[in-house]
Design a protein that fits this description.
Largest sheet: 2 strands, antiparallel
Helix content: 55-70%
Number of strands: 2
Length: 170
């Protein structure tokens, strides 16, 4: 996969003699790192995206290959409902592939328990949730009977597990 624009830009910065001189100054005087970050942003015409990245680049041995790109994912949990929401911050340097990659990461983070399923598949996914909670088959049968008011046997549970796993695959 090709490198993101941010990674390429970071490699160019690290190879630049002016940035290296600024880096040496910052390492000699880490107390004034904000001043060196501001100076690097002005000198190299960098966006606000670099404000968090430049202190790391200036003060340590930084490997640009760890950068994900110009699309940064922020996750927040609502204190009232406990639901997690994701926000993608897109920098000027971001490419379409960076945004697509961020979306893929968010989609992959979604858990099975947070998805909503129609009533038709509710018992199948309930079996999967109970199995993930380390419940035994007799316990699952008892819980399903109480929740869905139906009789089940071990073969039903095995069938529900198989169907739920197939439907849960992306």
């Amino acid at each position: 996969m090709p490198e993101s624009k941010v990674t390429i830009h970071a490699r160019r910065l690290l190879a630049d003699h002016r940035f290296q001189a600024l880096r040496q100054q910052a390492q000699a005087d880490p107390a004034n790192i904000k001043m060196y970050v501001r100076k690097a942003r002005q000198e190299h015409n960098l966006s606000d995206y670099w404000s968090e990245l430049l202190p790391i680049m200036l003060l340590s041995n930084f490997d640009p290959s760890i950068l994900a790109g110009g699309a940064v994912i922020e996750s927040r949990t609502d204190p009232v409902t406990g639901k997690v929401s994701h926000k993608v911050n897109v920098a000027e340097e971001a490419t379409l592939s960076d945004v697509k990659r961020a979306y893929t990461v968010i989609r992959d983070r979604e858990k099975l328990a947070n998805r909503r399923y129609s009533g038709r598949y509710a018992q199948e996914f309930r079996v999967l949730e109970l199995r993930k909670a380390n419940k035994s088959t007799p316990e699952i049968i008892k819980i399903l009977k109480a929740e869905f008011n139906r009789d089940y046997d071990a073969a039903d549970i095995a069938s529900f597990m198989q169907k739920a796993r197939q439907k849960a695959k992306p």
